[in-house]
Q: What sequence folds into this?
């Protein structure tokens, strides 16, 4: 049972445009959500997070939106840059539990 | 502070052999998490060690095991290797509130 789903394996956008990566979850007990970015041959690195008490969190070019009723979150990257090309993982946790449940990832390609 | 370090970077083993992967967490951190990233799959939780004890394990067979040493470094052992064990194995230190700091991983290839 996949509790965190990233239904788009890949996404391609033009430099300067918006990238929108989506993530759905099924476990209503999840209350903290994170996005990680992963380049080949490297471990994932933290990008941005959001608590379930918020519906939006912004950090520079990156914004995460959370829709609890739909059990859906999205990551917006504006403007997209070629260096943003990587695999993006959505992850969720329950309470103060550090055990994260990850989605399968979305490969973002930003074309110059 | 030094990050999470893993060794070796790459490991090639034959089916049926055993593999040993090593991890050193962030200095002073007592917890180590292990994840597996197989092709086409997300990161799957394997094991959590804290203060030398196994605290939780994911849905993996018993041939996946490990231990944590007094200096908090950790070993992941995979016995009776199967082809589908080929994956990137990631070790992480929990860092509030961002979840984890990951190591660069060990790429295990079973032939």
A:
């Amino acid at each position: 049972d996949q509790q965190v789903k990233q239904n788009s394996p890949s996404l391609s956008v033009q430099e300067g445009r918006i990238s929108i990566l989506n993530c759905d979850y099924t476990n209503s007990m999840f209350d903290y959500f994170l996005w990680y970015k992963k380049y080949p041959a490297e471990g994932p690195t933290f990008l941005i997070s959001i608590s379930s008490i918020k519906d939006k969190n912004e950090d520079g070019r990156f914004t995460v939106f959370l829709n609890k009723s739909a059990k859906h979150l999205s990551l917006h990257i504006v403007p997209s840059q070629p260096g943003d090309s990587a695999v993006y993982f959505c992850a969720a946790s329950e309470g103060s539990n550090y055990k994260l449940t990850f989605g399968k990832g979305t490969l973002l390609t930003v074309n110059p | 502070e030094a990050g999470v370090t893993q060794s070796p970077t790459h490991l090639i083993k034959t089916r049926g052999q055993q593999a040993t992967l090593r991890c050193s967490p962030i200095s002073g951190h007592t917890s180590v998490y292990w994840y597996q990233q197989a092709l086409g799959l997300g990161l799957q939780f394997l094991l959590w060690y804290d203060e030398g004890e196994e605290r939780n394990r994911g849905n993996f067979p018993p041939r996946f095991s490990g231990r944590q040493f007094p200096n908090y470094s950790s070993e992941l052992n995979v016995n009776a290797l199967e082809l589908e064990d080929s994956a990137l194995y990631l070790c992480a230190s929990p860092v509030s509130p961002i979840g984890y700091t990951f190591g660069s991983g060990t790429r295990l290839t079973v032939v």
Summary: Chain A touches chain B through 23 residues (CB under 8 Å). The two ends of chain A are 38 Å apart (CA to CA). The CA atoms of residues 19 and 77 of chain A lie 5 Å apart.
